[in-house]
Design brief:
Elements (H helix, E strand, L loop, with lengths): L2 E3 L5 H4 L1 H4 L4 H10 L1 E5 L4 E3 L7 E7 L2 E6 L5 E7 L4 E2 L2 H4 L7 E4 L3 E7 H10 L1 H26 L1
Antiparallel strand pairs: 1-2, 2-9, 3-8, 4-7, 4-9, 5-6, 5-8
Helix pairs in contact: 5-6
Length: 151
Amino acid sequence: MAKKSNDIIDISSSLSEIWRILTEDQRELVRESAEIVHYKKGQMIYVEEEQPSNLICLLKGKVKIFKTGVGGRTQIIRMIRPVQYFGYRAYFARESYVTSASAFENSTVCLIPMELIEDFVRKDGNLAMFFIGHLSVDLGIADQRAVNLTQ
């Protein structure tokens, strides 16, 4: 089982990309609602078909995003490194997760409720552009992989 932490972690430095976009009031809401969770190697962070509820930022460790195929074989889709965000695409698409995520090594993540993030995005074009930019990069990488598979 994942271990929730009461440790004081300076999320302003860990979430610096988003932090500098947020207003002081928004930062305070994030401080109040963010949750720090520790996962041991191999522990699941989320699974396919689960409903997304958090923006996840990897603070420490490595996370693998993978898909389980025919016969239970897993294929790694991508690796998440510290200070990368994940788990939000499915929420914005209003669908369940189509992949799973597990700790590739002992890892610490920051969970921020997506309802809070969605509220911020609706009010702040800069934050919306932040997510559009990240989703666009991910789409470009996926397109390149598809091309590589067909050649």
